Each structure stands twice: as structure tokens, then as C-alpha cells.
């Protein structure tokens, strides 16, 4: 599928050149797991400003009706499984690392609009973002696979973070972003403000689709693709999004996560094999 996605971006972007000002991320103040956290999410839903419309929660401007219906239906069906898993992850983080289990981070999404993205915290509190910014600039300017810092041994990670991140479990709180209408289950990953600033007008065409938890790039090799290949895949999705394509991507997501986890787990074994060879 990757090969078919190349060379599809020839026009200039219609997306504004700059996004709204984005404050730096800050940890949530909620110390309990569900009550206050869910209350904050519901009360700050974009549709809450229009209480007279009972259907405002079901309809999101710019999002196809079939896509919104699919998102809500799958979240409702998966909630009995997802909520206990999220509680276990919350408990693990609270036990292994001082500080809140959740954090909020400003991201850029649909049409270059900024929004607050929810995640599980997998790094130490107040982790230095300069490391990631430098790594990102290198990926954008080079033609190398987009390997995460995780596989190189990121010192900012907390215990068990590598497992949580490789399985994509740190992204689970973003189901609340989906409920709020800021994201979809399927779409390009939302980027950070400093990442957006380094994008060209062609790169920004990926924001013509709502951001998602999973997407065409994630099930098409992800860590084996270059930055430009990721952009091409995201733009292809933005142009061709359909119910059938979303279902195919969702179906392929679990196998893709398994493959990604194996890649992360294979890195330490490879290093140990090299050390053993040198010792012999």
C-alpha cells in the first residue's frame, strides 16, 4: 500500500500557515482515576456550550457522519474492556513513578487547529523536550526510517514505559478526545506544535483529515518508513477516507502493534548477541 501512496501530493496546501498559539503541556491535577477526570472531560466538551442541542455531541463539523457514528459505536462496545485496562495502567504508573498518571499535551489536528491531547504519562515529570525536538529535526531532514527514541534507550522513560508505549497503551486516554470530537479512531497522528512549525505547506495537507489513534501509516510499516513516506500515506488517507478504509485499518491495527512490539523487543537481544560475539 505504501508504494501506491507515493507521488500523490502535487498541489499547495489550503491549510493556514500557522496554528493557534499552543501553551506547553502540563500534568493534570487530578489524583483520582475516573471521577474528576471524566467530569473535566465531559464539562469541557466543545458541544457543552450549546446545551439546547441534544444532538450536538453526535455531530462534529467537518467530520463525516459515518465516521462519527463508527467512532462512538466502537468506543461504547469496547468500553467494558478499555476502562479496566486503563485503570490497571493508571495503577502501574502511580506505583512506579511519582507524579500524576495522566498528562495533557497541546497537539495540532484537523485543519491545523490546536487541541489538548490526553495521554498516560510514560516519562519523568518535567522531562526535557529538547531531545525529541533534535531527533525530530533529523528525521524530517533525512531519508532514514522513523525509529523512536525508545529503541535507543531514552533516559526520560519511567519503569515499564517501553512496554506501555510499544503496545500503544499510553494513547488510550485519547478515546476521550474522540468522544469530544477532537480526534477520530482512524486518521493521521496529531503532531506537536514545534513539529508543525517545521512542516512545509505540502506536509500540512495531512491535516485535511481528523487526527486518529491509529491510521494508514501505523499499519503500513510505521518505524520502517521515512518521514516523507509517512506524509504521503497520511495525505493519501485524507483524500480517500471511507468507511471501508477505516474498517481495514482498524482490522490491521492489532497485528501492526504485535509487529512493532516484537521490533522493540528484538533490539536488546541484538545488542546482547553482539556483545557475546565480541567476548568470544
Keywords, separated by commas or semicolons:
280 residues, mainly alpha, disordered N terminus
Q: What is the strand tally?
A: 5
Number of domains: 1
Helical run tally:
9
| Anisotropy-based shape | globular
Radius of gyration: 19 Å
Helix percentage range: 40-55%
Structural class: mainly alpha
Low-confidence stretches: 1-45, 47-54, 268-280
Span of the ends, CA to CA: 43 Å
Largest sheet: 3 strands, antiparallel
What is the H/E order? HEHHEEHHHEHEHH
Strand order of the largest sheet: 1-2-3
- Beta percentage is 5-15%
What do the pLDDT scores average to?
76
What can you tell me about this protein's structure?
The protein is mainly alpha-helical. It has one domain (19-279). It is 44% helix and 8% strand. It contains nine helices and five strands, in the order αβααββαααβαβαα. It has helices spanning 2-5, 35-43, 65-96, 130-141, 161-166, 175-179, 193-197, 227-240, 243-279; strands spanning 26-27, 102-108, 114-120, 184-186, 212-214. Strands 1-2-3 form a three-stranded antiparallel beta sheet. It has a two-stranded parallel ribbon with strand order 4-5. The longest helix has 37 residues, at 243-279. It is globular. It starts with a helix and ends with a helix. Residues 1-45, 47-54 and 268-280 have low confidence and may be disordered.
